[in-house]
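During the reporting period the student researcher (J.K.) took over the structure-prediction task from the postdoctoral fellow and processed the backlog of single-chain submissions. One of the processed entries is reproduced below for the supervisory committee.
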Amino acid sequence: MTRKRVKETTIGSKQGASCNELLALLNEYVDGDVDPAVCKEFENHLAKCNPCRVVVDNVRQTITLYRQNEPCKLPETFRKKLHSCLRKHWKKSKAGK
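J.K. obtained the following structure tokens:
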């Protein structure tokens, strides 16, 4: 069994980590691949910063939906528009070859 490699990073200042610092590490944080101290800094920041909390929640929900791997039914009108657009794009790309 291989052990997950934890990314060793230091972030923050006396005021704590900035939104940009945390969002730069978002993927690693959600995957659990960051140093525990960084995770603690993330949690402290998220407790005070609603915009970052919304971003993290959306990423987690997206990952959860993706992992469920269940196809979703598109509304008929949207499906027809999408297929029409894709056909036009494919025809243009084939014509250019």
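The committee noted the following: Helices lie at 19-24, 26-31, 36-48, 50-68, 76-95.
J.K. will present the remaining backlog at the next meeting.
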